[in-house]
Amino acid sequence: MQEILDEIVATIGASDDRGKVADYIPQLACVDPNQFAITVALADGRVFSSGDSERLFSIQSISKVFTLTIALGKLGDAVWSRVGREPSGDPFNSIVQLEHEQGKPRNPFINAGAIAIADAILMGHQPKETLAEILQFVRFIADDDSIGIDEKVAQSELLTGDRNASLAHFMASFGRIKNPVDCVLGTYFHHCSIAMNTEQLARSGLFLVDNGRNPVTGTRVVSTQRARRINSLMLMCGHYDGSGEFAFRVGLPGKSGVGGGILAIAPGTASIAVWSPGLDEVGNSKLGTEALEKLVQHTGWSIFG
Ligand code: GLN
Fold this sequence. Notes:
The chain contains 13 helices and 8 strands.
């Protein structure tokens, strides 16, 4: 495994076309696109990394997997009255479907859906309390108490978040947001600004590898059925309008973020985190996807056999 990862890092390092870093969030625009990291956390507890695997990056939309998991824990199936579970086929920050579908986002992973989920877990609490709860959950599943939020990224998102504010207000106009919009957005921007390295991120996905139970710590996080459902949503919706392409090329449930990270799950086998800040046209890590494609070719981990 170490050889495979080192080879991937060497190939990726030689790549000229690294994609484009997200520049609509100024704090992400200054990240060096030449960085790359990959970590594989196996179900048996072994962890392999190569590249800049200790460097922290902004997990951005990957956090939506964690907030969805928390929302399912609090609301159960009532979550599905707030958001759908269909691929959107539209960009992550699109507003068009919301009007046709009365303010109900297609799925919990597009921005509108994740904002609706942030509203659902706030339940009248202060954003600070909810963020503490989200952080506590992420630290628990990653088994690492050092994980925190990059406040500079959160402020940067807040200052340039007109599109997300539009989505939130538009949903509120359909009566779909129950807490003050500012509180919902503050919660959303902050959970997107959680900073992790690939080692922490790979460990945080382990509960989705072993039927809802972290195979290393032995703790149960969600039921088997819930873990299956989260994985299926990641496969169908985790890469926005690039989800089909990701399933075609990689064949694993995965969730991307505009910070350039991807968390991918090989059920029963491994949790994989990659990070390369440059993005493709639809906002998914360009070289991160290529690295996962190579890893799956080497290991045969595609869920499609
Ligand atoms: N915080 C980012 C945003 O709202 C998340 C987008 C993403 O990672 N795709 O635009």
